Amino acid sequence: MADTDEPMVVDGGSGHACEWEGRWNHIKKFLERSGPFTHPDFEPSTEALSGIRNIHVVDMDTIDVSNLNRQFLFRPKDVGRPKADVAADFINSRIPGCCVVPHFKKIQDLDETFYRQFHIIVCGLDSVVARRWMNGMLLSLLVYEDGVLDPGSIIPLIDGGTEGFKGNARVIFPGMTACIDCTLELYPPQINFPMCTIASMPRLPEHCIEYVWMLLWPKESPFGAGVALDGDDPEHIQWVYQRSLERAAEFNITGVTYRLSQGVVKRIIPAVASTNAVIAGKLQNERFENCSACSQIPMDLHFAPSSKLQDVLDYLTTSASLQMKSPAITATVEGKNKTLYLQSVASIEQRTRPNLSKTLKELGLTGGQELAVADVTTPQTMLFRLCFTS
Ligand SMILES: [Zn+2]
Predict the structure, then answer these.
(1) Do residues 276 and 260 share a domain?
(2) Domain limits at 31?
(3) Quick check: 339 and 380 in contact, CB under 8 A?
(4) 196 catalytically annotated
(5) Which of 98, 137, 158, 369 is the most buried (most CB within 10 A)?
(6) Cα(331) to centroid of ligand 1, in Å?
(7) What's the CATH number where 342 sits?
(8) In this structure, what CATH number is given to the domain that contains residue 166?
(9) Gap from CA of 281 to ligand 1 centroid (Å)
(10) The domain spanning residue 257 has which CATH number?
(11) Are residues 143 and 242 both part of a single domain?
């Protein structure tokens, strides 16, 4: 789904009433009067008002000048300040009775005691990984009694995103309706180009742009030594665009544009191509009954005893329904908890790397064995059951 840059907003329920005469006059005009273009069945009412007063906003970004055209709570004087702080100040001073608490943090820096306090969570995140993390967090808060979901433990999630003229929004009742991971396959796959293609055999406009920003930028330092490429700086993108055009001309490649250059540099996640059609058709997302995130069923992994740990790792990262990023795999072998592979800590990666070329049998794993897998796509460790095929 798409890049939004909008902070995530969370509702903490209603506070005390705060009324004065004529407070709603303008809003009533907007909500209660029908107009020349309204549907004949339209019945005006104030039901659209949410009445939400207590809001927590979490955002890790600071305000960039390029945000000002669309992020309307921010003014030129706010550039450089945390988005969460400025957004909270703006609402608090404009709407008496509303209390917004800012958190200048990553969503992953807050734990389940924080998220449990809310009635609803609204996400405007800019990556699939962050969406999956929040989805996993809300799933981890669900309470099942004898396999039956306690509806009181459900915190609805509203997820949305836009890019250009496209956008989408969906409501998720964790544990009840399709979750983010149920429909993971609808996201376009992340494209990473092999370095040899970028360096010597470009075939696509994207290859030329990758070449310029990954290899030429650090080599030529066009804006001074050590100046990092800023995807929101038009001069930087213009430089990348011009040099990419030159590279593309060399290889008779067409299609390099300014917009594409920025898209590649910023790794902008494109909108799901079918989103507009899906929304227009009011098609419901179907739950995936074996969804690894929300089904409560440990997923089976089918491998031969002679398969290598690398094969398991490849499956976890490339399977369309899992798409993990850097899974850490642990198992209990002969009564001991053993880390089979862990990528994120250099020393452990080095120590466990030899395991990747060992077979599952050599690692002491047995059929029916549970494998615990941790990944950035979920706050919880996921359990898999190893099923040996012969
Ligand atoms: Zn699911």
Answers:
(1) no
(2) 24-187+270-287
(3) no
(4) yes
(5) 137
(6) 24
(7) 3.10.290.20
(8) 3.40.50.720
(9) 22
(10) 1.10.10.520
(11) no
Residue 96 φ/ψ, nearest 5 degrees: -60, 140
Predicted pLDDT at 332: 86
Q: Taking Cα atoms as reference points, which of 238, 280, 282 lies closest to residue 256?
A: 238
How much distance in Å is there from the Cα of 139 to the middle of ligand 1?
9
**Cα–Cα distance list, 361 to 86, 357, 368, 375 (Å):** 56, 12, 13, 24
Average pLDDT across each block of 10 residues of the chain; the chain has 390 residues. List them in order. 45 56 80 76 70 91 83 92 97 90 96 96 88 96 93 92 69 93 78 79 93 93 90 94 96 94 80 49 71 83 95 93 92 90 92 96 92 92 90
Specify the pLDDT at position 4.
42
Ion ligand 1: residues, CB within 5 A, are: 179, 181-182, 291, 293-294
Residue 239 corresponds to which amino acid?
A: W
Residue 40 domain-assigned (yes or no) = yes
pLDDT of residue 380: 87
What separation in Å is there between the alpha carbon of 297 and the centre of ligand 1?
A: 11
Q: Catalytic pick from 196, 208, 291, 294?
A: 196
For position 269, what pLDDT does the model report? 56
If asked whether residues 35 and 173 sit together in one domain, one would say: yes
Please report whether residue 153 resides in a domain. yes
- Total structural domains within the chain: 3
Measured distance CA(186)–CA(180) in Å, rounded = 10
Distance in Å, CA 280 to ligand 1 centroid = 23
E-strand ranges in the chain read 8-11, 54-58, 99-103, 120-123, 144-145, 148-149, 157-163, 166-172, 299-303, 328-333, 336-341, 370-375, 378-388
CB-based burial label for 39 (10 Å; 0-12, 13-18, 19+)? exposed
Between the CA of 176 and the centroid of ligand 1 the distance, in Å, is 9
pLDDT of residue 296: 75
Are 325 and 283 in the same domain?
no
Residues in the chain, overall count: 390
2 within a domain of the structure (yes/no): no
pLDDT value for 351: 95
- How far is residue 369's CA from residue 373's CA, in Å, rounded to a whole number? 13
- Between the CA of 95 and the centroid of ligand 1 the distance, in Å, is 37
